[in-house]
Amino acid sequence: MLTANEIEHLVQSFEAGTVPVTDFHHREHLIVALWYAANYEPHEALSRVRAGLLHLLAVNGKPATAYREDVTALWMLRAHEYFRFTNASLSPETMQQWLLHAAQYPAKAVGK
To answer: Which of 6, 91, 95, 103 is buried most, with the most CB atoms less than 10 Å from its CB?
Structure first.
């Protein structure tokens, strides 16, 4: 289970674009998604995650076409719904439960 400090560090690294894209897998996307869902309204959270993902791709020399708005929007919606239906607060335990909940969906749940 991630600690609160590890969650914050991942989000800070994501925002700064310093997390290597090769280390930013589905699990890390989900952690960032839930953090933003917990801290921002849906539209703002999606906007910030979109900008962060595009920035992360750019600083790692990856094309912006690697970004998938449909997948990002779907996972952000799921993260917000998770908070709304569970009435949870952001904690390591909530993050662990979210990761378990999200595991029931395929990682590539849209398109492809």
So the answer is: 95
